[in-house]
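A quick aside before the break. I want you to see a complete sequence-to-structure record at least once, exactly as it would be stored in a machine-readable document. Don't worry about memorizing anything.
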Amino acid sequence: MEKLGEITKKIEELEKIIQYTFKDKNNIILALTHSSYANEYKNLKFTSNERLEFLGDTVLNMIISEEIYTKYNDLSEGEMTKFRSNVICETSLAKCAKNINIGKYLLLGKGEENTGGRYRVSILSDAVEALIGALYLDAGLEMAKNFVLDQMGEMIEKSIKGIIFMDYKTQLQEILQKGNEKRVVYEIVAEKGPDHDKVFISQVKIDGKPAGKGKGKTKKEAEQMAAKETIKALGNK
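That is the input. The structure line, written in tokens, reads:
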């Protein structure tokens, strides 16, 4: 178990990064507490960040929706929904997590720590949503909005301009390197359809073992989709 002094140090470091000092330290501690840590120390009545993540998800959706609605008044409802989905996804939240290095400050159980949980996309993205919820509770909507737009404003613009590109292959490689699994191979295992409308199916292999599959109109797209599916599978381990 981490000592109080270590937890306090984590909080202070993260506060400097996000440029906000919490009035109620319980809010930021809660945001950083993964369910594995809370379960491991039930006797000390730690609570996981899952409920705070729920709140943060709602606040995040409202902030991004308002930003798209007010800045891009020529978009239809369907277009706004599509662009919001591009921005609010595990990959973009994980990128935000990487920007503020939130993985370093998480409170994780020993089992989760030993299996690479500190670098797992699903855990990182959930922690960012929990942090947004914590900012909302501690300082209100405006502070949460400042944080979200500082971290994700550029993603909104890129989404609208159609230039968001999720490099799942690089992301997968980074995750596997942190977990001491390094050899990743992509194989095109099937091609379907006529030459003018061909679909490629790619298989990821990690240390020779089959992982996720993906399909696309090009070999590169198929590989990216296979990497995406592999990341999802790793996040649910």
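Two observations worth writing down. The chain has two domains: 4-161, 168-235. Strands lie at 184-192, 199-206, 209-216. We'll return to this after the break.
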